[in-house]
Design brief:
193 residues, mainly alpha, 54% helix, single chain
Amino acid sequence: MGIFDKLFGKKYPSFQTEGLSQNSEQLMDSQMFWEMISISKANSSGDYEQQQLELKKELLKRNATDILEFDNKFRTLRGEIYDWNFWAAAYIINGGCSDDCFSDFRGWLIGQGKAVFESAIQNVENLAELKDTNDGDWEGLSYVPSEAYEQKIGKDLPAGIRENFEITGEEWSEDGDDLKNKFPKLWEKFGLE
């Protein structure tokens, strides 16, 4: 710090470059990943915006490579549920769902924790058991790793792995009773009737 900075208190962020990763396609260990999600959820008391802050705190405790590997795992899981059934669930729960909304929904669903996520994979209608869906305000969690990386390193998060963008499953129609008939439990709880 120069004399000018000492006199006027100018401070610059000090970036930690320990564990700096230029690129990696490694995934964070599943147990560690879900533990971080669990801690962020528990510390937020059900407040989704607070969960994002709590997750960022957890990520900032890690090195840059860990943050990238967390993001890789997150994007891998989000890509695994790029499926028409999950889009139908988001559509029913929210009363409509664009492609951006669906991306946010998948990130939010991961943030609900391992048990909820895996239960939904077993049967998407298990989402009807959720008590709180954050009123469809699902945006935010997907951005946390890149924000944490930038705050820690002062650079953009490297590309990492490429997320799956090939939707799977059987397409449905939003017209008529297609969704109501395919997903009766979700429709009964969240449907527009």
